[in-house]
UniProtKB/TrEMBL annotation:
Pathway: Amino-acid biosynthesis; D-alanine biosynthesis; D-alanine from L-alanine: step 1/1
Pfam families: Ala_racemase_C (PF00842), Ala_racemase_N (PF01168)
Molecular function as annotated in GO: alanine racemase activity; pyridoxal phosphate binding
Active site positions, chain numbering: 52 (proton acceptor), 272 (proton acceptor)
Annotated protein name in UniProt: Alanine racemase
Gene assigned in the entry: alr
Alphabetized PROSITE patterns for the sequence: ALANINE_RACEMASE (PS00395)
Top-level taxonomic group: Bacteria
SUPFAM superfamilies, per database record: Alanine racemase C-terminal domain-like, PLP-binding barrel
Family according to the record: Belongs to the alanine racemase family.
Sites of N6-(pyridoxal phosphate)lysine modification: 52
EC numbers on record: 5.1.1.1
Protein species of origin: Rhodomicrobium udaipurense
GO cellular component, one term: cytosol
Length: 384
């Protein structure tokens, strides 16, 4: 039967159990190409990979295995728990925790050969004292705040640290880092302001590798790249800049199972709140994916505002009415009848409706779409 989808997708969907209402297809070769693009953009720097939040929701283990087939050797997670989980299957990886050193956790870092990003003078003091006490020059990164006001040593703390060089002796400061706040707007003057602040503070600690850029930063001018780049979203196929088109390709495809195909009479309303009235006799495909799966309620459609769009092959199916917890309704009136059947699939995310398209409908960003991807989905990792 012609289903309207490509062969690779068809094979992935066929591999999903018939019971699955949502199927997430993650294309690892696309992920690897995206990493390579980020690495090529920041040519002189080593290119790490940010894999926090379960590799932005895509699944840390398969993502890591794929990235290690490229040149990725250094990885950033958010928390110590994430780092410990990562260590169980990445024995040789260099792993940093972006959220910093929690009180009393130094021994855990040492035992698992993990590296904290030291985000305050207090963290530097604790790590330094631990290393001194155990006579172990353990590596760590030090983060300076140059404009985020979130984590990282404030300028005064940086000056205080420079004045207490004995604090740096007992451990090995392996990386000095900071984080850009508006790198998605390449021409924004704040990029240069942060660069200058970072330059000033790092000059106090010569001879240590420097790291400033995230995905969007990899696309800035050469001088920003320094020694270590830290791309995340670009690897996962999100557009890191506000500029279109993106240089990175989609990695995630989401398919929702059609649980019912029904007739809707002109003048009837669809869904909770009766927010959308059918303007013609319609064929409606009800799909077993809803906001509980991270298919945000914000992408709903109403008489006042169109919603997200699903696809079967080349055919567009506009969302109709509100997204509910477990179900979403699509207008399949214009799709050939043979392609719309109970048990079939509607593409909710992929090349035609990208992560960023869906985010725009929901009033959010691609990062939140990816990290919200549901736990109910059957996941298929495609290696070809
Ligand atoms: C999340 C994060 C990154 C990666 O950012 P992307 O925009 O996803 O590339 C890099 N550095 C820090 C400090 C981060 O928190």
């Amino acid at each position: 039967m012609d289903t309207g989808f490509s062969e690779a997708v068809e094979r992935a969907l066929a591999a999903a159990p018939a019971s699955a209402n949502g199927v997430l297809v993650i294309r690892l070769p696309a992920l690897r190409r995206n990493y390579r693009r980020a690495a090529e953009a920041s040519l002189k720097a080593e290119t790490a990979a940010v894999v926090k939040a379960d590799a932005y929701g895509l699944g840390i283990q398969p993502v890591l295995t794929a990235l290690q087939k490229e040149t990725a050797r250094t990885f950033f997670v958010a928390t110590l728990d994430e780092a410990l989980a990562l260590r169980t299957f990445a024995n040789d990886a260099t792993i940093y925790t972006l959220n910093g050193l929690m009180p009393g956790t130094s021994a855990v870092y040492r035992d698992a050969r993990l590296r904290p990003v030291l985000n305050s003078l207090a963290e530097v003091e604790e790590w330094s004292a631990y290393c001194r006490e155990h006579e172990a020059r353990l590596p760590a990164a030090i983060q300076f705040d140059t404009g985020m006001c979130r984590v990282g040593l404030e300028p005064e703390a940086a000056d205080a640290l420079a004045a207490r060089s004995e604090l740096l002796q007992p451990f090995r400061p392996a990386v000095l880092m900071s984080h850009l706040v508006r790198a998605d707007e390449p021409m924004h003057p704040l990029n240069e302001v942060q660069f200058k602040r970072f330059e000033a503070v790092t000059s106090l600690f010569p001879g240590i590798a420097k790291s400033l850029v995230n995905s969007a930063g990899c696309l800035l001018r050469r001088k920003y790249h320094l020694d270590l780049a830290r791309p995340g979203i670009a690897i996962y196929g999100g557009n890191p800049q506000k500029v279109e088109p993106t240089q990175f390709e989609p990695v995630v495809w989401l398919f929702g199972r059609i649980v019912q195909v029904r007739h809707g009479e002109k003048g009837f309303t669809v869904g909770y709140g009766a927010t959308e009235t059918l303007k013609r006799d319609s064929r409606i495909a009800t799909v077993g994916v809803g906001y509980a799966d991270g298919y945000f309620r914000g992408v709903s459609s109403s008489d006042a505002k169109p919603g997200a769009v699903g696809h079967i092959g080349e055919h567009a199916l506009p969302l109709i009415g509100r997204v509910s917890m477990d179900l979403t309704t699509f207008d399949a009136t214009d799709v050939p009848e043979a392609l719309v059947h109970r048990g079939g699939f509607v593409e909710l995310l992929g090349e035609k409706t990208t992560v960023d398209d869906l985010a725009r409908h929901a009033g959010t960003i691609g990062y939140e779409v990816l990290t919200s991807l549901g736990r109910r989905y059957h996941r298929v990792y495609v290696d070809e």
